[in-house]
Amino acid sequence: MRIKVPGTPETEYGIVIGSGILPSAWAQIKAAHAQFNRFVVTDERVVAAGHLNALLGGRPAPYFTITPAGEISKTIDTAVAIIEAMEKAYLGRDTVVIALGGGTVGDIAGFAAAIFKRGVPVVQIPTTTLAQADSAIGGKTGVDSSVSKNAFGAFWHPAAVYIDVAVVATLDDRQYRSGLVESIKHGLIADAGYFEFIENHIDEILARDPETLMTLARNNCRIKGGVVEEDPFEKNKRRILNYGHTVGHAVEAASNYEMLHGEAVAIGIIAAGRIETELGLSKPSQLDRIRAVFERLGVPTRIPADMPPEKLLDLMRHDKKAVDQWPKFVLLDRIGQAHYEAGQYAVRVSRDLVERTLRQLT
Ligand SMILES: NC(=O)c1ccc[n+]([C@@H]2O[C@H](COP(=O)([O-])OP(=O)(O)OC[C@H]3O[C@@H](n4cnc5c(N)ncnc54)[C@H](O)[C@@H]3O)[C@@H](O)[C@H]2O)c1
Ligand SMILES: [Zn+2]
After folding, report:
1. CATH architecture of the domain with residue range 2-171
2. Residue 99 and residue 140 in contact, taking contact as beta carbons nearer than 8 Å
3. What distance in Å separates the CA atoms of residue 64 and residue 44, rounded to the nearest whole number?
4. What is the pLDDT of residue 7?
5. Ligand 1 pocket test, candidate residues 130, 170, 238, 299, most atoms within 8 A of CB
6. What is the tens place of the pLDDT at every residue in 147-168?
7. What are the residue boundaries of the structural domains of the chain, listed by start?
8. Under CATH, what is the fold of the domain 174-361?
9. Which residue's alpha carbon is at the smallest distance from atom 27 of ligand 1?
10. Max Cα distance, the chain (Å)
């Protein structure tokens, strides 16, 4: 599968999907970047799970292990440490950075690659359900500041993406389930048939069946890739990927990031669904269907009781996509079809309606 990204140095990149392909990825990257040195960025848990060894297969290669793993390390200091490690290894512009890990590793390593010597290629090897469905495809990279998430960032589309569905076998259950919410989001915004496939295969998905996960990966890449091709720098259509994220981001922040991203987005999707029902865009039975899938997945569908709607509304006023201190919403006309109005995919929804929705969900 290939994704075209006009206006970028790579102009198009390939996505390889398989099960157990980690050991062969190294040789493929070497062949594709024959004149390049390779530098791997990963994190301590991915290393402990054996995935760095599987990728390297005993070959010596310089690498950087992010410690501790997780969002807390997604800082400019980590990006600086990666760049300095590359310099100390005498690496120059002829280096390809290989990001082996979840969205945290992918975002930091992609950002370091974007700014190292004015930019070197990055290959994404996502190892979480979230990264495989979402963050590794699309070219957004960045790190957090002490004030906000992804405050430093760049669009830096990968040179290639390798999705090995076997690596998620070692992911803890909560992370695993939460990351799947982005796959469901793809079905909701773009493909009713894909949503139905997920609905009908929850057991196989939860059993981490490789064949089923490869079907998911192919659909995720097709849908997200298609949107990114159409709008690589998020001028309009790409906004649909933010479905459920307006309320989702507020819930995630209000939980002090104790709630996982996908868990918060699941709540955000339910909130968007309620708004659609109130506006008469979609039927209540549709929302019941979506809620049932989330329940089987074991992700939350209600706002925690200790999270006051006022706090969420305040956080939404600071949403980075807010205009006049109020964000726009991506909504659905029906499953598989994002709502489009006056040339826009993100539309205005009154504060009253949002507030009422949040109260109903608390
Ligand atoms: N760039 C984008 O478009 C985009 C999109 C969505 C999210 N993100 C970013 O992604 C980040 C979250 O990503 P995430 O959910 O993948 O989190 P993560 O990368 O922090 O991974 C979650 C945890 O799982 C561990 N882990 C990763 N792979 C594993 C494996 N195969 N086996 C065992 N443990 C493993 C990690 O070490 C970490 O402790 C956030 O920073 C978010 O902002 C970026
Ligand atoms: Zn998301």
Report:
1. 3-Layer(aba) Sandwich (3.40)
2. no
3. 10
4. 65
5. 130
6. 888 899 999 999 999 999 999 9
7. 2-171, 174-361
8. Dehydroquinate synthase-like, alpha domain (1.20.1090)
9. 102
10. 61
